[in-house]
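Re: the 332-residue chain
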Amino acid sequence: MKINLLLIDDDWEFTREVQQFLEKQDYQVTTAATLTEGRNAFQQQLPDLILLDLNLPDGLGTELLAEFQSRAPEIPVVMLTAFGTIDKAVEAMKAGAENFLTKPIEPEHLLLTLQRLSEKVRLLNQLRAHELAVAERWKMVVGESAAMKQVIKDATTAAQQDVTVLISGETGTGKHLLAHYIHQNSPRASFPFVYINCATLSDTLLESDLFGHEKGAFTGAVKQKRGRVEVAHRGTLFLDEIGELPLNLQAKLLHFLEYGEFNRVGGTETLHSDVRIISASNRELDKMVASGEFREDLYYRINVVNIQIPPLRERPEDIVPLFEHFFQKYIR
């Protein structure tokens, strides 16, 4: 995946040159010129790296640095400074900045600095993913039967493919656990796993929960809210009971799957999020497609990989392992 970099600087010419240079190096660059713009850009899409100018039109970059450190201390911040403000930049490093660069900046020096930080980010993400996988890999999905071994094998293979997965099975068969297992064993494991049950909310609230809303979008919307597709950025969004999704929201979900873009309820700004979708249903979606209750195009979009979990009555050899698992879990 490309490294997402947020560049906050009010020098338009400098920003344009840096953006063009880094995009040629396969970075994805978002720019902002003020504290306010930088704060908004950070909230809309958490970056992997941040280049932050010390002096901005509406305040000091150290104000944002403190906010970034509070909200996401794992994201490296490099301060940009003019020759006469090096002392302040050193103070910023003491406050949590990863490094500082003095303008004018040599392109190769900038690239080397970012490459080192990108490698650090990549290694930290791998370490977190490995730690989580080691801790959870064999805890979440339990089964000794041939059927469950095949389910686990299919899920492990699917985890490494960045495609949609549809998990089918009766209520209580462990669809949520299997979705979490797939996430924890995927390259997205160090990013959020976000759950939403499509059967528990009204149409309006479900759309707001999924895509977010702007202040005043409807009665009770007293402030802006980020939807779960935003919260799940770079991670996995698990849509449980997707068969209950209303047709109007099916169309919006299809658009998001195709283009990675969406609008909050009551909003006009087009937002983007990089999310893997895992869905689950206890209903037979193919029959719902035939009856017109579920969109055929959406069905094929969410069903690139299909995993069917058999009910426990069809695999009695798993009863003892499940009993032992839960016994050990609850006597700790």
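DSSP finds 13 helices and 16 strands in the chain.
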